[in-house]
Specification:
It contains 15 helices and 22 strands. The chain is an alpha+beta fold.
Length: 460
């Protein structure tokens, strides 16, 4: 299998010398095999590796166990890991498919981590079975040629080296290489459409053709080749007709309606995908075309992915639906070495153990604590009622609310400020403002913790 993947990478020109690769590792056999193979290719391509893991919080303690497993495996290879969690169940309160919401959040997270660590490639563990499932899923939802092309081996910063092999080959490879992996029991439950396709539809269709997975993968490759050409034509027309201002796209309805319906459909799919990150099916695109042809100024239509369409003075306008602001409670475990993404605060918290203190000029975004005075483990969270802090240099303890008032922190900003708390739930660092006087470094301090907050913006 290793040779097959190597040949596929060369054929698709996926990797170049000096690439910085972010590997998305869930702990399953596909992502474990992916990381193992990328490690073996490091010498050939002189590339660096970083691992990202996202806890979707669907399976409680099992999800946490997955995260620890990935951390241990990557550490055994000498590869750094960035971990974060996303409360997908809470996000579903706003509506949407759980798997679709999880996919969108996952890709946004991976791109954020890639940007943070200057990675130019994001490696995903999708294989031929995933490709077959994707094609059937898109077929059932009414997708056109774009959807039937399935997942691309390489698209912008995303690469999928395992699309050359199937699930059985991957599990055999892991067993032969002595690699352990985590199993997700929810994959066996035919609750979601994707799982039903995997567990019921594909086994049924394989009775008619045992080579179904390979046949569907080949079909996807045919559509990919044709779409590559058509996308060039669509992009030219899109840039010619689309007027972009901030997060709003607009088209002259007369120009849009004059296009061949096939070309107009692809232009609109591209516009919607740029706003929401998700593709539209045939019925959704047909609704947009009919909407545009109506020409009724003031008319509005809402699409999946939070995209609003409206017609105003002969222009078709697409924009993101605004969301009401709300306080998101968050809680993240902080390892003694590594990085944690705080999407709610737009920060990445880096931590490492050091033995000596250097002189810094970064205010309270880069701090050093006496590890010996800290009750482990550490946790990052936002404020709770009753929180108190003994700020460095202050005469004593005070309410966190009073501390924020003293620092002139706006009320609407206070809930998103990260707090580092120890095992006793004592605040030892108000990120960006002050550390706890109790954990300050003294001449007798031996083991130190260096923590740094890096601003990564508010893009999720």
């Amino acid at each position: 299998m290793l040779d097959k993947v190597k040949d596929f990478i060369k054929k698709q020109n996926m990797l170049q010398l000096g690439d910085k690769i972010l590997a998305a590792v869930s702990g399953g056999p596909d992502s474990i095999a992916l990381l193992d193979i990328l490690t073996k290719l490091q010498g050939d391509y002189q590339c660096s590796l970083h691992v990202a893991h996202l806890n979707h919080m669907f399976r409680g303690e099992e999800s946490l166990a997955d995260a620890f497993f990935v951390q241990e495996y990557a550490s055994s290879l000498g590869i750094c890991v960035t971990y974060a969690s996303a409360d997908i169940p809470a996000l579903l309160e706003d509506g949407g498919s759980s798997q679709e919401v999880a996919r969108i959040v996952r890709y946004r997270y991976l791109r954020r981590v890639a940007k943070l660590f200057d990675c130019n490639k994001i490696a995903l563990g999708h294989h031929r079975n995933d490709q077959a499932e994707t094609l059937l899923h898109n077929l059932l939802r009414g997708s056109g040629p774009e959807g039937l092309a399935g997942m691309l081996p390489q698209h912008n910063d995303l690469i999928r080296p395992l699309l050359a092999v199937d699930r059985n080959e991957i599990e055999t490879y892991c067993s032969e290489q002595g690699l352990s992996w985590r199993n997700d029991p929810s994959n066996k439950k035919s609750v979601y459409r994707r799982n039903k396709i995997r567990n019921e539809l594909i086994p049924y269709l394989e009775e008619y053709n045992p080579q179904l997975v390979n046949i569907l993968s080949q079909t996807a490759e045919i559509f990919q080749a044709e779409n590559n050409y058509l996308e060039e034509v669509v992009w030219q027309k899109y840039t010619q007709l689309c007027d972009k201002k901030n997060e709003t796209l607009s088209f002259n309805t007369g120009e849009l309606n004059s296009l061949h319906p096939a070309l107009a459909s692809r232009v609109l799919r591209l516009a919607a995908r740029k706003l929401s990150g998700r593709a539209l099916d045939y019925l959704q695109v047909r609704r947009i075309l009919e909407f545009s042809l109506s020409g009724q100024s003031g008319k509005m239509l809402e699409l999946p992915g939070g995209v609003i369409l409206e017609i105003s003075y002969h222009r078709l306008i697409l924009r993101k639906k605004s969301k009401p602001s709300r306080v998101e409670r968050y809680r993240y475990p902080l390892p003694l070495t590594g990085t944690v993404i705080l999407k709610e605060a737009g920060l990445a918290i880096k931590v490492r153990e050091i033995s000596t203190v250097q002189t810094y000029d970064s205010g309270d975004l880069l701090v050093v604590l006496d590890k010996g005075k800290v009750a482990l483990p550490l946790t990052l969270r936002n404020r709770l009622p009753g929180d108190r802090i003994y700020p460095l240099g202050a005469p004593g303890e005070k309410k966190l609310k009073d501390f924020f008032i003293d620092k002139k922190v706006r009320v609407d900003k206070r809930d998103n400020i990260p707090l580092l708390v120890d095992a006793k739930n004592e605040i030892i660092w108000v990120v960006g403002y002050a550390i706890n006087n109790r954990v300050r470094v003294t001449e007798r301090s031996k083991n130190l913790l260096e923590l740094q907050a890096v601003n990564i913006g508010d893009e999720c």
